[in-house]
């Protein structure tokens, strides 16, 4: 019985199908009418028309992306394990994604690079390749071809490196000009973040001249003068390119400011003017012949400016002079403020460093200097940097006064420090004729925040020589609330200028 029912159903379906075909042949409008009864999926047109200017901008990003991707490479690095890596990257993370590979204590790292010559020279970050083992660097091009790379030279101070692959007819990036880079410029970042090869992100230049980020470096002479961008960059972007919409390379991505280890809106790229200076030296002889003024320097803030009589906050403060340096020979002095180099204004440690590293050893530079409340000019011949220690000793906050004397110790309570007379042994130890010994500094006091520490000798205050504690007290008491005062301090290994504001 069931078989008969199934046979009958199949017969009815076949008849219906043949009838429909026959009707469609006789009446072509039948299928159209049938289709009109089906639901319509989706609208006929988009709800808005994109303005031509938006289309032009979108096309500019597409064109820039397509033109620069062949100039960017992916870098895989097998390197020696580094147990300090997590501590180094606690706050400012350089993006060198890594993971344990095997029991031989090697790690596999990933980064990016930018081709700078058709025959295979590539610029990347030093921290991407610095620990690579022999034959441990592999470069992948955008066409998926792979090459082994060798290190040509590295520069820990700027965190740049040059590697080389054996290839021809590559597409090098066009190297841009920092004079064309302004906050607000649209940019794209191209690299290989989080294993996502040849990723393009878009943003703007958020700021230029960013320094003193405290990035971990294997060099005491760290040079930081970054382009800040909000184009998304993440671990693996290190060494990749920051490009403007013309496709010009304007920076090498190097760091992010983050509390999570990934992008939070603040990325930093090494500007192209520093990049070009460094790569020329590295390609030429594999090392950097870096010139030096021979000064130890710090930023100028409002209090320091006030204490030195500057009309406004500007320039870079000289804390100390290196022996046998060009600065020493030219007569540069502690408490001088360097205002410009060859006519270019410098208003931060990073800006002064950048101007100097663009020069060559043996070149003479013209410095505009603020001294004794007037502007003077000094010509300094640049010499080779004597050591990997040179600048840095930023200046910070405010406060000071109120004097109590006990057991020969003069205590400036509001300022937060005390002094006592120098002994003959201390004069010999510190190589000074006069001054007062810094006996104590209260932790987190205004003067400690400004950079004063125990174990130094104050040789002058407010540009006046100090021979004994009572003279220092007299100078401080001559100041009114809100005035600023600077102290010239001799430590055993350097000099320091500490400025502070007199409190209410």
Structure characterization notes:
By secondary structure, the chain is α+β, with helices and mostly antiparallel strands. The chain has 12 helices and 31 strands. The strands form 5 sheets. Strands 24, 25, 26, 27, 28, 29, 30 and 31 form an 8-stranded antiparallel β-sheet that branches. Strands 1-4-5-8-7-6 form a 6-stranded antiparallel beta barrel. The protein has a 6-stranded antiparallel beta barrel with strand order 10-11-12-15-14-13.
Provide keyphrases for this structure:
Pdz3 Domain; 12 helices; 3 domains; elongated; single chain; Thrombin, subunit H; 504 residues
What's the N-to-C terminus distance? 110 Å
Helix content: 10-25%
Strand content: 25-35%
Rg, Cα atoms, Å? 33 Å
How many domains is the backbone divided into? 3
Give the CATH topology of the largest domain.
Thrombin, subunit H
Mean pLDDT: 83
- Helical run tally: 12
Number of separate strands:
31
Low-confidence stretches: 82-96, 98-103, 387-401
Q: Largest sheet, described in full? A: 8 strands, antiparallel
Assign the CATH architecture of the largest domain.
Answer: Beta Barrel
- Text of the CATH class of the largest domain: Mainly Beta
Tertiary shape: elongated
Find the structural class using helix and strand composition: alpha+beta
Question: Helices, strands, pairings?
Answer:
Blueprint: H1 2-26, H2 29-36, H3 52-68, E1 72-80, H4 85-88, E2 92-93, E3 97-100, E4 106-115, E5 121-124, H5 126-129, E6 132-140, E7 146-155, E8 160-165, E9 174-175, E10 186-191, E11 199-210, E12 226-229, E13 241-244, E14 248-257, E15 267-271, H6 272-285, E16 291-292, E17 295-299, H7 302-308, E18 316-321, H8 326-330, E19 337-341, E20 344-345, H9 349-357, E21 364-371, E22 374-381, E23 383-384, E24 403-406, E25 409-412, E26 417-421, H10 424-430, E27 436-441, H11 446-449, E28 457-461, E29 464-465, H12 469-477, E30 484-490, E31 495-501
């Amino acid at each position: 019985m069931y078989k008969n029912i199934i046979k009958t159903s199949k017969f009815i379906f076949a008849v219906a199908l043949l009838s429909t075909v026959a009707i469609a042949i006789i009446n072509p409008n039948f299928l159209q009418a049938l289709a009109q009864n089906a639901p319509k999926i989706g609208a006929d047109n988009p709800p808005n028309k994109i303005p031509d200017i938006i289309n032009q901008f979108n096309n500019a990003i597409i064109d820039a992306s397509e033109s620069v991707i062949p100039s960017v490479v992916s870098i895989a690095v097998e390197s020696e394990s580094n147990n300090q890596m997590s501590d180094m990257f606690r706050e400012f993370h350089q993006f060198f994604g890594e993971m344990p590979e095997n029991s031989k204590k090697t790690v596999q790292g990933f980064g990016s690079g930018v081709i700078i010559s058709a025959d295979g020279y590539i610029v990347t970050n030093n921290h991407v390749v610095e620990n690579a083992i022999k034959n441990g660097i592999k470069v992948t091009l955008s066409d998926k071809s792979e090459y082994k790379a060798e290190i040509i030279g590295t520069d820990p101070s700027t965190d740049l490196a040059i590697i080389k692959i054996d290839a021809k007819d590559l597409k090098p990036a066009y190297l841009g000009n920092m004079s064309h880079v302004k906050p607000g410029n649209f940019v794209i970042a191209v690299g290989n973040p989080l294993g996502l090869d040849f990723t393009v992100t878009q943003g703007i230049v958020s700021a230029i001249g960013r320094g003193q980020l405290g990035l971990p470096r294997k060099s005491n002479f760290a040079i930081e003068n970054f382009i800040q961008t909000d184009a998304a960059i993440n671990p693996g972007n290190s060494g990749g390119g920051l490009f403007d919409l013309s496709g010009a390379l304007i920076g090498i991505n190097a760091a992010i400011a983050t509390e999570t280890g990934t992008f939070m809106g603040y990325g930093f790229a090494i500007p192209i003017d520093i990049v070009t200076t460094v790569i020329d030296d590295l390609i030429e002889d594999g090392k950097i012949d870096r010139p030096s003024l021979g000064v130890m320097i710090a930023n100028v803030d409002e209090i320091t400016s006030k204490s030195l009589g500057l009309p406004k906050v500007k320039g870079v403060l000289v804390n100390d002079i290196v022996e046998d340096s060009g600065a020493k020979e030219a007569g540069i002095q502690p408490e001088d403020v360097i205002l410009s180099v060859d006519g270019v204004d410098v208003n931060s440690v990073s800006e002064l460093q950048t101007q100097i590293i663009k020069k060559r050893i043996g070149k003479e530079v013209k410095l505009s200097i603020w001294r004794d409340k007037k502007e003077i000019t000094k010509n300094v011949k640049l010499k080779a940097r004597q050591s990997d220690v040179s600048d840095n000793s930023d200046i910070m906050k405010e406060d000071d006064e109120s004097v109590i004397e006990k057991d020969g110790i003069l205590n400036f309570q509001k300022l937060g420090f005390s002094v006592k007379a120098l002994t003959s042994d201390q004069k010999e130890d510190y190589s000074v004729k006069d001054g007062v010994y810094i006996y104590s500094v209260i932790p987190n006091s205004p003067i400690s925040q400004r950079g004063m520490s125990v174990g130094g000798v104050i040789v002058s205050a407010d540009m006046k020589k100090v021979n004994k504690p009572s003279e220092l007290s007299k100078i401080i008491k001559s100041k009114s609330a809100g005035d600023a005062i600077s102290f010239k301090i001799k430590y055993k290994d350097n000099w320091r200028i500490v400025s502070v504001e007199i409190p209410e």
